[in-house]
């Protein structure tokens, strides 16, 4: 038993030391699968520093060893304005480079958690709270863990009350983008109402959902294989976003409820979902 544990620890250690891939999103073809990465580099992780930090996921302070995102990105020259974090569970979180560079929002990427005796220990799985059930789909951290200390994250377009870093697992890669061009891929541009829908998508959904394989894949794709606007009416969508299902924990559902979601927003978002399904998607430029 003991040698196996050691072996696993050594394996986890070698994974944690893996370089992180960084590239710029290529222009042209709109399907993410076929967009060629530009200037792709494997960046060695920087020297580790020790930090005692509060973490919004574990809701406690712990000792970590890791590095800041700004340290990693120092070795990558790019004039793009946003770092799109690729998270191992399929989430995509855009962070403005200006915030990273002036350290006003510079996530700490822990590669080790240090136990009470000073020895490294694996990152505990994150269970959702419901004492009646075991969580069938806990969040699992592998190579590293983003440690964010408060819920007021200054992300662009972000809604207070929804902190995407409560759901992130390990940082896998970073794609450098121009944020305006990125959002344009999701724009349906037909009426002001649909533009409102796009803003709502950007502020409440894009961290976890994508459209036709562009963007996040943690939750369902909004258009393929099933167009969500056909499955849910605006009223129905409102209930789905605003409230968590009673059986969310036993079924392993991960989508967080957003209590401040209004009927007005649901209508606008639904219109945008419909147009996204009916119109061709725009290319990243
Ligand atoms: C933190 C991640 C996250 C955010 C933010 C999020 N979702 Fe989800 N969503 C999920 C996941 C994961 C699923 C798959 C089912 C599950 O595990 O809950 C899902 C499933 C869905 C489904 C399909 C399930 C069904 O019963 O129809 C719809 C529709 C949906 N989300 C809409 C939205 C909309 C609209 C927003 C923004 C207002 C949003 N989601 C924001 C994670 C998220």
Automatic annotation (TrEMBL):
<dbReference type="GO" id="GO:0046872">
    <property type="term" value="F:metal ion binding"/>
</dbReference>
<dbReference type="GO" id="GO:0009055">
    <property type="term" value="F:electron transfer activity"/>
</dbReference>
<dbReference type="InterPro" id="IPR036909">
    <property type="entry name" value="Cyt_c-like_dom_sf"/>
</dbReference>
<keyword id="KW-0349">Heme</keyword>
<protein>
    <recommendedName>
        <fullName>Cytochrome c domain-containing protein</fullName>
    </recommendedName>
</protein>
<feature type="domain" description="Cytochrome c">
    <location>
        <begin position="192"/>
        <end position="277"/>
    </location>
</feature>
<keyword id="KW-0408">Iron</keyword>
<dbReference type="InterPro" id="IPR009056">
    <property type="entry name" value="Cyt_c-like_dom"/>
</dbReference>
<dbReference type="GO" id="GO:0020037">
    <property type="term" value="F:heme binding"/>
</dbReference>
<keyword id="KW-0479">Metal-binding</keyword>
């Amino acid at each position: 038993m003991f040698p196996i544990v050691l072996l696993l620890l050594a394996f986890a250690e070698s994974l944690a030391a893996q370089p992180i891939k960084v590239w710029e999103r290529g222009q042209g073809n709109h399907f993410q699968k076929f967009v060629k990465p530009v200037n792709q580099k494997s960046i060695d992780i920087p020297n580790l520093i020790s930090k005692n930090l509060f973490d919004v996921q574990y809701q406690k302070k712990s000792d970590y060893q890791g590095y800041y995102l700004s340290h990693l990105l120092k070795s990558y020259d790019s004039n793009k304005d946003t770092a799109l974090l690729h998270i191992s569970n399929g989430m995509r979180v855009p962070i403005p480079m200006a915030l990273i560079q002036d350290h006003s929002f510079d996530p700490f990427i822990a590669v080790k958690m240090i136990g009470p005796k000073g020895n490294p220990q694996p990152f505990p799985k994150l269970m959702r709270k419901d004492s009646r059930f075991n969580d069938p789909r806990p969040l699992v951290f592998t190579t590293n863990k983003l440690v964010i200390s408060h819920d007021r994250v200054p992300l662009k377009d972000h809604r207070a009350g929804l902190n995407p870093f409560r759901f992130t697992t390990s940082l896998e890669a970073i794609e450098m983008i121009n944020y305006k061009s990125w959002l344009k891929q999701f724009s349906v541009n037909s009426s002001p109402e649909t533009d409102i829908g796009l803003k709502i998508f950007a502020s409440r959904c894009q961290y976890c959902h994508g459209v036709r394989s562009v963007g996040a894949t943690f939750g369902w794709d909004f258009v393929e294989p099933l167009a969500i606007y056909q499955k849910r009416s605006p009223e129905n969508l409102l209930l789905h976003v605003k409230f968590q299902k009673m059986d969310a924990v036993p079924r392993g559902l991960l989508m967080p409820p957003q209590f401040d979601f209004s009927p007005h927003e649901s209508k606008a978002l639904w219109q945008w979902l419909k147009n996204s399904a009916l119109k061709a998607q725009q290319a990243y430029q």
